[in-house]
Amino acid sequence: MTVEQTLSIIKPDAVAKNLIGKIYERFENNDLKIIAAKMKKLTRFEAEEFYAVHKYQPFFADLISFMSSGPVMIQVLEGENAISKNREIMGSTNPKEAALGTIRADFAESIDANAVHGFDTLANAVNEIMYFFSKEEIYSYQK
Ligand code: CMP
Asked: How many angstroms does the Cα of residue 133 sit away from the middle of ligand 1?
């Protein structure tokens, strides 16, 4: 078991539906600690930079419009195998395919408005944490 950190974003649909607390509860109930957090409305430029890997996908324009349409809640999660655990808790990208009891199955409406974002590899997680948080804004505390 390895203690990892990963970035999580609660997307505009879930923030607007007042679901921040319910989603945080899922993280905490699964031993993922919230060690940094901020609310932010992404500019189109930030969304484009952040999702640069999807630049040539047909869904890119819709993704950028949606992610900059309202405030998001951004957090760093820490815990054993945090990257894969967070992906498990989130469920499949398309909520119609997400396993019962996952965040996307329970709270998401569509593949675009799919409630949360998380990272799949350690390198991506580290890069994306650094995109939003300085070292001073991350608190790796003990229980
Ligand atoms: P996310 O995990 O934030 O990463 C990229 C996002 O693009 C994804 O969640 C979806 O919300 C969105 N998206 C829209 N269409 C697709 C698709 N066909 N495949 C993957 N992601 C998609």
From this structure: 23
Determine the residue of 90, 114, 120 to mutate for testing ligand 1's pocket, defined as the one with the most ligand atoms within 8 A of the Cβ atom. Answer: 114
Query: How far apart are the CA of 97 and the centre of ligand 1, in A?
Result: 13
| Cβ–Cβ under 8 Å, residues 75 and 25 | no
Measured CA to CA in angstroms, residue 33 lies from 20, 27, 74, 84, 140 at distances of 15, 7, 13, 14, 9
Query: What is Dmax (Cα atoms) for the chain?
Result: 44
Pair 116, 39: CB distance under 8 Å = no
Residues 128-137 have a mean pLDDT of: 94
Q: What is the pTM for the complete model shown?
A: 0.95
